[in-house]
Amino acid sequence: MTRFSKRQYVVFILVAVGFLAASALGVLIIAHVIQIAQAFGWVAAGLAVLLFGFMVNAVKALIDRRNVTEQLELENLYTLGQKTSFYNIYQFENRARVLRTKGWLKNKKQYIIAFSFAPLGISSNPRHNDEVSAFNFAIAQFLTEHYYGDRKNPKNLFKSNVFCFHRGEFLIYTFCHDEKDVKELTAKLVQDVYDLGAKEKVRVLVQPFFGVYEANYSDNMTFAIDNAQIARSIGEESFETVTFYHESFRVTTSKDEASEIVEALTNKELVVYYQPKYSLKEHRFISAEALVRWNSPKYGLLSPASFIEKAENAGLISQIDLYVFERTLVDLAEAIKRGRRIMPVSVNFSLYEFFSPNFLTVFVGLLEKYKVPPTLVEVEITETTSQANQFMSISIIKKLKDLGVRVLMDDFGIGYSGIDNLRKIPFDAIKIDKSFTDLIVEDEKTRNIVKLIVELGHRSDIEVIIEGVDNEQQVAYLRKMKMDTIQGFYYSKPLPLDQYELFLKENGFEGRGARK
Ligand code: C2E
Ligand code: MG
Ligand code: MG
Question: Do 99 and 53 reside in the same domain of the chain?
Fold first, then answer.
């Protein structure tokens, strides 16, 4: 007879109790429904069931909403350096939705204004960033005190201005008569903020930029906010203080392009290539990066450069990233099943992912589904958004690390992937951008910078990887600098799965007992 362990008995009992409880609840609900049906008829019983479903959903929505709000509050706390009662974007959107439905405001136009005070000068100076945070906090408080309400009549009960601070940017939802009226408001804001700066003895030099979008009553609020933000960033590029949104600003991904990407996802036309990374220290390959390609029947094999940005614009990047992650897990799980010794694989995640409150749940869910140990996957993050360093959800990164997942900062040295982030975010590795590699042989300054980054990494216990290395001369310089890890065509191009497996075999990864 089979013998069960104590633990198994406990599990059986728990499952049985759970099953009985669920059945009892089910019977109870059915009994009530029948009672209602007998007393009031089956239509009433149907309505009761609907009402019950609605209540369950409402409770679930409330819990979800709390999670989102907590996440956003954390972001605000990080960006502003202090906790405020300032609206977060979620509350902002809700409040604006409520206001727009008020009949008495319908004779005015509604505007969304996105504005930021971009610091002038070197932004990688940490003190400088702290001062910008403090200044933002002061503005946040000032706005709440002085602008919350009708600006021409601050005591107005209708409170037609709504603010929030989100991703390094203030947002105002307001009602004005026309564009002239908006310009007056922004001019007054600039003056007020500068006066405030003088009063608070703020030393940072800031430049204000406003993006304005006139929203229609039928506009989706998220879309309206996005338009104001686009206008602001366009203005920032051309040093225009106030920029009104225009359709041409949107780098649009046409509907056809977006549906082609969706189709590619459904038809599994996206394929994953693997590019190995070589450790100069250990004289062996130690990991690989998963890179997506689109094997399109219409266009042939497409590089990510041709569709990642379009996918980002169409809001499809998250699906692509998760698709690539899942494909990678399938390949890893298959190798584990066959008893192969394998290398960890890093997967690129767009920063957008880190604002999604259920990112972690989905991530962990997939790891569990394929039974891949977290230590076999790494996450590469590229920062492309201005101010991202100030709001990036560090908590998610920390949780990933707690799981045992290594987190890498991609494209270090360009854009916003800078020193300041290293200070604030506990990355396990940095990947120096290819633009440095390209100049390493001929430019001494570039060599010095790379040397310093290697030293910095060694002192801070951060692995330093360099990408895009494609010749021997570059390798010689990097060896001299004691670079940890190299990724590039010199060692291997990104390979499709079958070739990658061959590559692993040739490099001593054919079995568990293979050479270390
Ligand atoms: P990345 O993450 O910085 O990836 C490195 C890129 O450099 C890859 O281009 C790789 O093929 C290329 N590369 C590596 N070694 C060399 C070399 O020696 N010479 C040259 N000329 N190039 C080299 P790829 O595959 O075209 O990817 C471009 C970018 O697309 C990636 O840059 C990454 O930012 C993005 N990407 C790729 N897959 C994904 C994905 O699944 N999700 C997201 N969000 N982005 C992805
Ligand atoms: Mg990468
Ligand atoms: Mg890179």
Answer: no
pLDDT digits (tens, 9 = 90+) for 281-300: 999 999 999 999 999 998 88
Interior angle at CA 465, CA 459 and CA 471, nearest 5 = 130
- Is residue 304 in a domain? no
If asked whether residues 193 and 113 sit together in one domain, one would say yes
If 0-12 CB within 10 Å is exposed, 13-18 middle and 19+ buried, where does residue 128 land? Answer: middle
Mutate to test the pocket of ligand 1, among 348, 465, 500 (most ligand atoms within 8 A of CB): 348
Q: Which of 291, 347, 380, 440 to mutate to test the pocket of ligand 1 (most atoms within 8 A of CB)?
A: 291
**Which residues constitute the domain of residue 459?**
277-289+318-504
Which residue lies with its CA nearest to atom 46 of ligand 1? 348
DSSP 107-135: TSEEEEEEEEEEEPS-TT-HHHHHHHHHH
- Identity of the amino acid at 144: T
Closest listed residue to residue 207, CA positions, set 231, 183, 176, 242: 242
CATH code, domain with 167: 3.30.70.270
Minimal CA–CA distance to 432: which of 397, 399, 466, 389? 466
Residues 50 and 135 reside in one and the same domain: no
pTM, whole model, 2 decimals?
0.62
User: Would residue 1 count as lying in a domain?
Assistant: no
- Which atom of ligand 1 lies nearest, measured to the CA of 349? 44
Alpha helices in 267-391 (DSSP H): 308-313, 317-337, 359-370, 388-391
Whose tokens are 């689109």? That residue is: 294
Among 249, 268, 301, the domain boundary falls at 249
Using DSSP, state whether 346 is helix, strand or coil: strand
292 Cα: distance to centroid of ligand 1 (angstroms): 8
- Number of domains, the chain: 3
Q: What is the mean pLDDT of the chain?
A: 83
Verify that 68 and 114 share a domain, yes or no. Answer: no
The atom number, within ligand 1, closest to the CA of 323 reads 41
Query: Are residues 374 and 423 located together in one domain of the fold?
Result: yes
Structure tokens given for 401: 């690390």
Q: What is the pLDDT of residue 155?
A: 47
Structural domain includes residue 131: yes
**Ligand 3 centroid from CA 287, angstroms:** 15
Domain of residue 402, CATH code:
3.20.20.450
In a domain, 166, yes or no: yes
Give pLDDT tens digits for 237-253.
777 889 999 988 876 66
Residues 6+ apart with CB under 8 A from 425: 389, 392, 394, 397, 409
Same domain, yes or no, for 361 and 495?
Answer: yes
Q: Rounded to the nearest whole angstrom, what is the distance from the C-alpha of residue 446 to the centroid of ligand 2?
A: 21
Residue 379 CA to ligand 1 center (angstroms) comes to 14
Assess contact for 446 and 453: CB atoms under 8 A.
no
**Residue 426 and residue 398 in contact, taking contact as beta carbons nearer than 8 Å:** yes
Q: Are residues 240 and 362 in the same domain?
A: no
Sequence-distant (≥ 6) Cβ neighbours of residue 47 within 8 angstroms: none
